[in-house]
Amino acid sequence: MSRDRREDLLATLPRHEAPVILVDNASTDGSVEAVRASLPAVTVLPMERNVGSYARTVGVEHAGTEFVAFADDDSWWAPGDLARAVEIMRAHPRLAVLNARILVGPEERLDPTCAEMADSPLDGADLPGPALLGFIACGAMVRTEPFLTAGGFDRVVRFPGEEERLSLDLAAAGWGMAYVDSVTVHHHPSTRRHAPEQRRTAIWRSRFLTALMRRPLPEVGSVMVQALRTGAPERLGLLRALPDLPRAVVRRRPIPPAVREQLRMLAKGAA
Questions:
Q1: Model-level pTM?
Q2: 101-138 as b/e, with b when 16 or more CB fall inside 10 Å?
Q3: How many CA atoms lie within 13 A of 86 on its CB side?
């Protein structure tokens, strides 16, 4: 998915080794026209408005393939690693999401979240790497059937932080997620990014809505209190969540005890 990052797209799209579907979130910078003119092999699905990460769900539905690899407009999979990821997915039938190692920038720094995933305390005996209860969408491959059955990325959370609700639902359904260090995604963050305060606001909006949809009510209250105590961007995130509260409540399905226990294990490990 992409929005108003024409130059990033024209630089990264040619790096992909598999058929590409670009879902454009109502760009106003000529992205759709530029990609269609320069890269006719790319399937472009223009959205009438910005639907955030739900655009990825649109792309998966359109693809109709057994597996789909995600990439943002500033990321791409290393040569040969898409095929390697497919082999790993097929060899591990319970694996719904493979999270690749993500190298950031020209200096190829390991994304700090990857180090956290590599140290996951969760049991992943039947998986190709450390078991997860989350992933990074710009560097993940998904198995289409469980992805869509779990609802994909939804219209409520949108972006960023869209991975959490989906991960909880996949885990609740018995699917596995794993970090696989032998597969690599390159991420060169775009210069057209939100300011840190704006991103904090967006993340806490997503965090609160996800909690409302899937966490026990006392934990929803804890998320709210934490946001109120942390700072102005976090409090603004709660405010920004208000228009979507009715849709979040309608979709409320608290996760089962087994998944809550996994969350407690992760929290204990992080502490």
A1: 0.95
A2: bbbbeeeeeebeebebbeebebebeebbbbbbbbbbbb
A3: 11
